[in-house]
Design goal:
It contains 18 helices and 2 strands. With 413 residues, it is mainly α. A two-stranded antiparallel sheet has the order 1-2.
């Protein structure tokens, strides 16, 4: 064991696994007195684009409960379970898919939010919707689609920005500004020690931010801040949810040995970080108008993420597994469906499986899908909506040169 290993172990062991006695006493006193967090998002403050009577909150079905229900009934929500979290080509049903990830984020964020006295209905809506716009094949797919869009149009593709489009534009669900803002700003790829509120004023400002995200790079996107404490809690919970679970999945997949991690915890790190991070955030955020963590926790989350990137995400076998074939398949699919749109080939899957379905969904709200004015965006909408299995089957059927490995549970060799 090296000196750095010893220092790391000592630092991690020193992190508290329970709330301080002083804060527990304060929380018990506050609850006995009927305390309400003055900084929580109020249901009465929820803002929607359209003041539809059918979307009005009620005592038994408040505004953000309605948002959570809107999200759970989307086709994009159903497709979560067909989309990769990290490992695309492992035939192991114990590995996380996108659907489990959003549930884990919701669970962690609700635990923290309840302790802080925040609006857990808003937390749930943001958490369940935050990855609606994610591509097939996780961040590898997101990168391929962004590369193509950048080369063709000079625009960026970010899954958090597209998640807003899925809920707000493609399915027209009239979600609240607070939910949409939390989804846009979740960005678990960029950690901060202190999360302060943006002061977002309304939909005009929000729409301008979304458009700037499409025309800017990650340097702008990572500056986004949520308008609510609930959005801040989901943002940090996204990191907490994946930093340990992805490690468990890597070990389960046989991709890396449990002893390969610097902290020596192996898959047990997931349980460790869930407990310590939640306690630390509550300890440093209770009663405040921001979400904050200690320097120690911030340092540890940053370290654990760097280790995951070095040993899992960027290692041959994950993002680069069949990377050239995947990139080529994305290019071929993009070119094919852009051509089909321009030819108005209504026999094409982009018409039958995408445009027709979106138009039927929007017709219920007396809205239409403007797929003609920006064909590139329509192709992006379609490809991003695909599950891994749908993408693989369609690509291999359309293009002879595409040969993805066949997933199988039984190794015959």
């Amino acid at each position: 064991m090296t000196a750095s290993d010893t220092t790391l172990g000592a630092r991690l062991r020193a992190m508290p696994d329970h709330l301080s006695d002083g804060l527990v006493a304060r929380m018990e006193s506050d609850r006995a007195a009927g305390w309400l967090n003055p900084y929580r998002a109020l249901d009465s403050a929820a803002v929607r684009r359209i003041a539809r009577p059918s979307d009005a909150g009620s005592i038994w079905r408040p505004a953000y409960v309605r948002d959570a229900e809107k999200i759970m009934h989307l086709p994009a929500y159903s497709r979560y379970n067909g989309k990769t979290q990290v490992f695309s080509f492992r035939s192991n049903d114990d590995l996380s898919r996108r659907g489990l990830h959003v549930q884990l984020v919701a669970r962690i964020a609700r635990d923290i939010g309840r302790a802080l006295g925040l609006n857990c209905d808003l937390i749930e809506a943001i958490a369940l919707g935050h990855d609606l716009g994610h591509t097939p094949f996780g961040h590898a797919g997101e990168k391929h689609l962004n590369d193509i869009l950048q080369a063709r149009c000079g625009r960026s593709f970010f899954h958090n920005v597209h998640s807003v489009r899925v809920l707000d534009v493609l399915y027209g669900r009239n979600a609240t500004l607070q939910t949409l803002d939390g989804i846009l700003c979740h960005n678990g790829e960029y950690e901060q020690r202190v999360f302060e509120l943006s002061g977002l004023s309304g939909f005009d400002e929000f729409d301008a931010i979304v458009e700037r995200c499409r025309t800017s790079g990650f340097d702008y996107v990572k500056t986004l801040r949520p308008m609510t404490l609930e959005g801040c809690v989901v943002r940090i919970s996204d990191i907490i949810a994946y930093v340990g679970r992805d490690r468990q999945d890597a070990i389960e997949a046989g991709f890396i040995d449990a002893g390969a991690f610097d902290d020596g915890m192996g898959g047990g790190y997931n349980s460790w970080i869930l407990t310590r991070a939640s306690i630390d955030i509550v300890e440093h955020s209770y009663g405040r108008n921001r979400i904050e963590m200690s320097e120690g926790l911030f340092r540890e989350i940053s370290r654990a993420k760097r280790e995951n990137y070095a040993k899992i995400y960027r290692s041959a076998g994950v993002e680069e597994e069949h990377g050239a074939m995947m990139a080529r398949a994305f290019e071929l699919m993009y070119e094919r469906f852009l051509s089909d749109l321009r030819a108005r080939d209504e026999a094409s899957p982009i018409f039958r499986h995408h445009i027709a379905r979106i138009e039927r969904a929007l017709a219920y709200y007396d809205r239409t899908y403007d797929w003609e004015s920006d064909p590139d965006q329509t192709v992006v909408d379609y490809i991003a909506s695909m599950t891994d299995g749908y993408f693989i089957e369609l690509a291999t059927k359309l293009f002879d040169e595409v040969r993805f490995p066949q997933r199988t549970y039984i190794n015959e060799r």
